[in-house]
């Protein structure tokens, strides 16, 4: 037997980070701003199984000018997940391009803030509040220079690591850091190259090949995280990523 879970239209959140007043969308747009998923009833007594939604946010800069640059790998991962799960990114809410769907029976909200990386929190805070997503289910996807190009890492929490986009998100979540991160390695700038120029540069052919392969692995990792949480499979995933460029 199937039933639909529909999260209510609310404008004030009760989650433990700051209460953010978010304008309610017009009546005609309600369908696009509610998380909805079909789920089975495993209990013979008819008890409903409810799934906590995930907010998966990729950091990047909007516009064709930045497409394919190192700083936009977060956007790329969201695009890969949306394609793999058949989720349309066709709604603007809280300064972000969003898509609503599910992985398995778990409802997810994909988001690409259109605020530019350094102000990403202006989207993440209101979206998390509006949909009442707990911190442990806010997955932030972004570029990480401390990791080699194409190496991925999933963490349950952490600091901002001098990443201005992550810093902005933390500021809009009342300084909290207990939310998952999906880091995509882009390596360090060569020599004395300016960091900003490096981040806004496109990948070389070899680097692009590594990143594309990582994106495919990343989609499966996101599925695993949403369905199983930080299980032993995620631990093995991180270990495999750490040594995947080492030749035996």
From TrEMBL:
PROSITE patterns: PEPT_TRNA_HYDROL_1, PEPT_TRNA_HYDROL_2. Keywords: Transit peptide. It comes from the Eukaryota. Pfam families: Pept_tRNA_hydro. InterPro entries: CRS2-like (IPR048076), Pept_tRNA_hydro (IPR001328), Pept_tRNA_hydro_CS (IPR018171), Pept_tRNA_hydro_sf (IPR036416). GO terms for molecular function: peptidyl-tRNA hydrolase activity. Belongs to the PTH family. This is Chloroplastic group IIB intron splicing facilitator CRS2-B, chloroplastic. It comes from Olea europaea subsp. europaea.
